[in-house]
Every structure is written in C-alpha cells, then in structure tokens.
C-alpha cells in the first residue's frame, strides 16, 4: 500500500481509541506496527529510535520509544503518562490514547478512557486472562467505552494454536458476564494476533487460517463513530455569550448569541427550547458557525444559537429541547476516581465542574470503594490516589445532569481543589 | 439498543469543532488571555478558528507575536496584514528589546534566538498580566508534546513540569490559575501536519509566500539546506546555489531550513505531505536535533 493511495480526504471519519496492556503484552509493538504499517512513522523518527535503542544496548528497535516521550520515562524505561498518537488510513483518522497499564496508573487509564470510543485490551496468549485484564476491562466498562476488542497477542509463541485462543475467549466471556459488560450494552469482539510478526493487524498472515473474523485494522475501520448509535436528547451547555458591543452594524445591536458545543442530539431552526436552570422557553431563531448561517446542527458541532425571545442566559446554563429537560439536582451519586496524591478530605469543600458549569460541593457519603483487581466492594473512610469509590456529593448550585450511562458528556464531572486549582477527581454520575 | 445511521462529523469538522470549543473555554474561564500569532501556518489556522468561534463579535483576546528579529520579512508583512484585515489588536514584543534590557544574553551574535523567545514571552506575560497564552503547538510535532495537556499549567517561572500535569478528562478542561501562574492552551493539539494543510486547503486560507516553492540562494551544510541571507551568509568555501525550495515551517531564520520542493499550490503541498519520508521538525528545525530531549528541556524553561 503506497502512501499516495492513502491520501486522506476532507471527509474522512474519526475514531478515538485506547490501548490497555503493559509493555509485556506487546502494546508498544502493536502501536508501533499500526503506525509503521500505515506509514505514519517516517524515516527520521525510525533512525532516531534505532539510534536510541542501540545506545540502550538493545539489539532490536524498541518501538515503545515512539510513545515514551519524556526524559524521565526514557531514563526509567517506563511509561508514566498518557500519550496521544495519530494515524490515518485514507478513510479514517485515528487518535490513540496510549495509557500505561500498571495498577498505580489507574488514573491514567481512566483519563485515556474518558475520550475513547473503543478499547483494545491486550492479552498475552501464554498467560491468558490475568488480574490486569480484569482491571482494564472493569475500567473500560466504568468509563463507558462502548466497543471492546480483546486482542489475544503473541499467538506465535503458542504455535498459533486455536484451542489456546478458544479457551482464553471463553475465560474472558465468563468474566465479562460476571461484571455485566455485555448486559450494559458493550460490544465485545475477539481477535488472535501476533503484533511482532504483523499477523491479523493490517495483513492476515498465513499462520491462522482457522480465524475468519476481521483483522485489527478492519475492526478499527468499521467501528461506529461516537454518538452514531443512539438517538440522543439535545444537550447544549452554554460556554460563552456573544454580544458584539460598539458595533457599526445596526443589525448586530440586538445580537445575542449563545455559544457552545452540542454534546448530544440535534437542533434545527424553529425548534422549541428551554433554558436551564431558569426553565424559560423560546424557539431557535438562527444557528451560526462564525458569520455563516446553517439550518441544522448535529452532535459535537460547535455553534452559536440565537433565540427568538430575550432570555437571560449565561455561561454554565444549558439549553435543551422543551419536554426533554433533565431535572436540576443539588445532590449527585457517582463513581469517583481519585486522581490526586493528596487524599480526599470529607471535611473540605471542592469545586465540581460539570459541562461548563461549576458548583461548590461537599462529600455526603462514601458507600464503598472497589478493589480494581478483585472487583470486591470494600468499606472505606477516605480515598487515596487511584481509588475508585461510590460516593455522593451535596451541591451548592443545581446541576443539569444525565446518568453517565446515557450521556458521557452530561454525566461526567471533575473535582477541583480550590487551593491548588488541581484536578483531583473524575466522576461518573449514576442513574 | 437500536442502531441508527446518524450523521456524524468528518475528521476535519470534528477537529475544527474541538478547537472552537477549546478557544471558547479559554474565553469563558480566563480573565486575560492572549493568542500567540507568528504569521505561520498553524497560527493562521487558529485565527480562522477564532473567527468561527467568536464572530460576529470581536476576539476576546489580543494577538501577540514574540519577534526574534530574525524573521523573514514576507512573514512579518503577512502577520501585520492579517491582523489589520481582522481588525484585531496585535502586540509585538521583541527578543532584541530583551537583549537591550539585558535579560537575554547571547553566547554569540549568530546564536539562534528561538530559545530566548521564552524570556521575552515571560516578560510580556508579566507586563500585560496575561493568565493564558493560546498557541498553535501540535502533539504530532514532537515526542515531549505528545504528552502535553490541551490546557497546560505553568508555574510563576513559566515552567512546565511534565511529571506533575493536571489530569485532563473528557472535554472538561481546567484552565484555573492563581495570580502570576499561567495556562498555555493548545486548540490544535490533536491536529497533524496533514490536518493543518487539509484545513488550509478547505478554508482557502492565505499563507506567506515562503510556504510555496520559490527559487532561493542556499548552501548545503552537513546534510541540511541552509538559506543564504544577510543573517546567515555562506561560509568561506561554501558553494551558493539557486534552488527551488519551500518552507514547511517558518521561524527564526537561523534555525529554520527549507526543503527542496516544486509544490507551488496548497493541493500540491497536501500530496507532498502525504508522500514525504521525513517529519516536519526533522526536516526543517536545526535546533531540535541536538538531543532527544531538547524540546522537553526548552518547554520546562517556559518555551511554548
């Protein structure tokens, strides 16, 4: 496949996915292969990592050097942060979030998962379903990734034996049923693979004629994009209000544009809408992107909405379709991942940022925390970094929320520590 | 679950929408932001994105260029022309003023001034009290950038601490800072060089002429093509030749090299970008080759 045939068009679709696994599972090799086989790695980059591999005394090119970009990572030979990588096939652009797989990096996995629509979970064919497989699957489930690809890698080291593959698939399915992966609408598929030899990645190879399913790249190419699979209710958090002042154009004197990104659903001119939390209703007068007027807008589009009536609206308000309004709430129940080295304090007040809205918040109750390895629910008084817990918060201001399982954008929030301004928690609202 | 075939955004529309969203978050969260504008292709894309984000209103931030004094005149003229067309305020602060003040001291007169932009930038941030600088850096440019946040926190010395970055989840960007601290916001983090060129093509953006193939006197020096200018004269014994070249990136004359190319239109450049075998920085930035970590090092010191 020459690069020129891969020339992307303006209309390529986009898929964001993540890879879960440790270096031992061949994750870096997988990513390296995808980048290499799609001609994303260019000659000078390859020369550079070859040179660095040699300097570190390795006889093969260490493809993890492509993703481990920080000095500290190279010094310690470990991955400490999520890296984002890009490649394109000529029909689709991909953004890979590559997260380190170790237990202490739960927060990085949650971070990477938050923007992914598909997760590749790597299993070493020699080792089968491990504790870390369970952890990665639980986190992918928790963060609501709809498509899960279980890649059973290193098939070359088990003589490409189908019985090994079948047994691991059965083990995984049993476990997936136990944690409710399928029940909750996650789509799971399995693929045998040798990232090292390139079998079943871009090319099928000749070693596994018994597998008739799609290759990895075929799975990626055909995975539905985010927001394409469900009818969604219109959600438009207001980011910014545009009131051109001192304008020479008399038409702009009354211009009042509500700017934001459609987080779910669609909107057209004439649609009846309600502004929350005030509850006042109006109709859509115009939809614009910059100065350009458009008749209709869809999910993930950044637009400016003009309403027929003058309704006092500011950043942090939410515009919805009339009749589809979520009830503003002053208490939320959520699964929370604690991200900070400073433990959670039940005595303190934090800031909840939900869509474009902020409220002060205090912990109500911590019901339990989850052992990410055994998935046991444990009683707890506090939370330390990487803990995941079921928790409730009392809010100073009402928030317009949906359950995370229904809408990731309006069901998610972060917690901010006011003294440091750090982001210390990531929450997913329970229905 | 019912499966629908719903309309979704193309990758360019998605990237555009994400960037607009980020620009509006800066405007909504920060009290005194500024948009860094060099006249280069990435910052020209950001200007178009800012138009889509804020028109018919004015931009909620001024534009600022940190001028090394070693820029191609075509680019400087283009910068001024574009700012005037948009009717937005342009602030220019120069490394040469920092040199006069004594805050920048060059090791030698011909030392590249790119890294010294950090000093001038920090001085300008302090002078105007900016709490956020919007820039056109992309994660695909360089390894240290691949792990940088979209809203990246800098302490009061302008330093980036890669090991202590704020977690960034969903599209909930945290641009809060205390007085004296600073956020660097990167709306086109998720764009590749190809995306930028496709966007320029789709939006029919005008660019400074040096991005397109033109004949220029150059010398060949240890594998690189070095333009011959009053600031970068040929060394004794070097053979000056006229070559058809274009710049893939524009910056300080002393450390930005052109590539041999006959691509004189945006669509030819898109094809050339798709078929090239060398990365943007590898081909053209003479200052990144020193070590694996040179960009990371500069960023820790406050560089963009």
Describe the fold and architecture:
The complex is a heterodimer of chains A (431) and B (304). Chain A has helices at residues 27-37, 43-55, 71-76, 106-114, 131-142, 162-179, 216-222, 408-411, and strands spanning 13-20, 83-88, 92-98, 118-124, 147-153, 187-192, 235-237, 240-242, 257-261, 267-268, 272-276, 280-289, 292-294, 296-297, 302-307, 318-321, 328-338, 349-354, 357-370, 377-378, 388-400, 412-416, 423-429. In chain A, strand 4 (118-124), helix 5 (131-142) and strand 5 form a beta-alpha-beta unit. Chain A is 19% helix and 33% strand. With 431 residues, chain A is α+β, with helices and mostly antiparallel strands. Chain A contains 8 helices and 23 strands. Chain A has 3 domains: 3-222, P-loop containing nucleotide triphosphate hydrolases (Rossmann fold, 3-Layer(aba) Sandwich); 235-321, Translation factors (Elongation Factor Tu (Ef-tu), domain 3, Beta Barrel); 328-429, Translation factors (Elongation Factor Tu (Ef-tu), domain 3, Beta Barrel). With 304 residues, chain B is an alpha/beta fold. Chain B has 2 domains: 11-195 and 293-300, Rossmann fold, CATH 3.40.50; 208-284, no CATH class. Helices cover 33% and strands 15% of the residues of chain B. Chain B has helices spanning 11-29, 41-54, 73-86, 95-101, 117-128, 193-203, 266-275, 280-284, 294-300; strands at 33-36, 63-67, 90-94, 132-134, 151-154, 182-185, 214-221, 224-227, 241-246, 259-260. Chain B has a 6-stranded mixed sheet, sandwiched between helices. Chain B has a 4-stranded antiparallel sheet with strand order 8-7-9-10, with no helix packed on it. In chain B, helix 1 packs across helix 2, helix 2 crosses helix 6 and helix 6 runs antiparallel to helix 7 (266-275). The longest helix of chain B is centred in the N-terminal third of the chain and has 19 residues, at 11-29. Chain B starts with 10 loop residues before the first helix and ends with a helix. Chains A and B meet through helix 2, helix 3, strand 2, strand 3 and helix 4 of A and helix 1, helix 2, helix 6 and helix 7 of B.
């Amino acid at each position: 496949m020459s690069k020129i045939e891969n020339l992307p068009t303006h209309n390529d679709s986009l898929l964001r996915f993540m890879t879960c696994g440790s270096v031992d599972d061949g994750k870096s090799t997988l990513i390296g292969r995808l980048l290499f086989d799609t001609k994303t790695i260019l000659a000078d980059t390859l020369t550079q990592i070859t040179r660095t591999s040699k300097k570190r005394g390795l006889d093969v090119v260490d493809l993890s050097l492509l993703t481990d970009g920080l000095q500290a990572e190279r010094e310690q030979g470990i991955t400490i942060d999520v890296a984002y990588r890009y490649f394109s096939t000529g029909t689709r652009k991909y953004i890979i979030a590559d997260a380190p797989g170790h237990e202490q990096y739960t927060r990085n996995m949650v971070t990477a998962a938050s923007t992914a629509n598909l997760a590749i979970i790597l299993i070493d064919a020699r080792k089968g379903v491990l504790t870390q497989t369970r952890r990665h699957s639980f986190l992918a489930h928790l963060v609501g990734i709809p498509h899960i690809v279980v890649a059973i890698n290193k098939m070359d080291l088990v003589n490409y034996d189908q019985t090994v593959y079948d047994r691991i698939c059965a083990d995984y399915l049993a476990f997936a049923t136990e944690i409710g992966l399928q029940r909750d609408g996650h789509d799971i598929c399995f693929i045998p693979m040798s990232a090292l030899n390139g079998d079943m990645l871009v090319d099928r190879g000749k070693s596994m004629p018994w597998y008739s399913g799609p290759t990895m790249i075929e799975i990626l190419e055909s995975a539905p994009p985010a927001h394409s699979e469900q009818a969604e209710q219109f959600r438009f958090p207001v980011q910014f209000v545009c009131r051109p002042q001192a304008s020479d154009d008399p038409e702009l004197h009354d211009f009042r544009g509500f700017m934001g990104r459609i987080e779910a659903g669609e909107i057209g001119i004439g649609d009846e809408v309600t502004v929350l939390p005030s509850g006042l209703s109006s109709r859509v007068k115009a939809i614009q992107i910059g100065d350009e007027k458009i008749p209709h807008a869809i999910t993930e589009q950044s637009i400016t909405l003009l309403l027929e009536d003058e309704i006092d609206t500011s950043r942090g308000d939410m515009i919805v379709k009339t009749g589809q309004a979520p009830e503003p709430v002053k208490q939320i129940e959520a699964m929370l991942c604690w991200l900070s080295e400073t433990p959670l304090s039940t005595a303190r007040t934090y800031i909840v940022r939900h869509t474009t809205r902020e409220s002060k918040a205090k912990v109500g109750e911590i019901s339990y925390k989850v052992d990410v390895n055994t998935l046991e629910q444990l009683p707890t008084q506090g939370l330390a970094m990487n803990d995941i817990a079921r928790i409730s918060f009392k809010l100073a201001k009402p928030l317009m929320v949906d359950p995370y399982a229904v809408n990731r954008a309006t069901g998610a929030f972060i917690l901010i520590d006011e003294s440091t301004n750090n982001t210390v928690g990531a929450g997913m609202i329970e229905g | 679950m019912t499966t629908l075939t719903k309309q979704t955004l193309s990758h360019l529309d998605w990237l555009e929408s994400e960037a607009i969203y980020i620009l509006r978050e800066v405007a909504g969260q920060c009290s005194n932001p500024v948009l860094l504008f060099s006249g280069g292709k990435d910052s020209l894309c950001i200007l178009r994105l800012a138009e889509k984000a804020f028109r018919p209103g004015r931009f909620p931030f001024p534009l600022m260029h940190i001028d090394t004094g070693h820029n191609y005149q075509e680019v400087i003229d283009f910068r001024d022309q574009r700012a005037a067309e948009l009717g937005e305020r342009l602030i220019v602060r120069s490394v040469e003023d920092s040199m006069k003040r004594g805050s920048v001291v060059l090791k030698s007169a011909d030392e590249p001034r790119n890294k010294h932009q950090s000093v001038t930038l920090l001085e300008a941030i302090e002078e105007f009290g900016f709490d956020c600088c919007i820039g056109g850096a992309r994660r695909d440019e360089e390894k240290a950038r691949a792990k940088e946040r979209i809203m990246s926190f800098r302490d009061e010395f302008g330093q980036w601490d890669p090991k202590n970055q704020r977690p960034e989840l969903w599209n909930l960007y945290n641009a809060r800072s205390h007085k004296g601290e600073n956020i660097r916001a990167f709306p086109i983090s998720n764009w590749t060089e190809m995306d930028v060129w496709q966007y320029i093509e789709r939006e029919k953006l005008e660019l400074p002429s040096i991005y397109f193939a033109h004949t220029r006197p150059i010398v060949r020096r240890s594998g690189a093509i070095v333009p011959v200018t009053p600031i970068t004269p040929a060394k004794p014994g070097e053979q000056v030749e006229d070559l058809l070249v274009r710049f893939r990136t524009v910056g300080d004359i002393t450390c930005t090299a052109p590539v041999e190319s006959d691509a004189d239109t945006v669509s030819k450049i898109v094809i050339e970008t798709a078929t090239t075998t060398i990365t943007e920085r590898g081909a053209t930035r003479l200052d990144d080759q020193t070590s694996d970590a040179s960009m990371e090092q500069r960023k820790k010191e406050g560089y963009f």
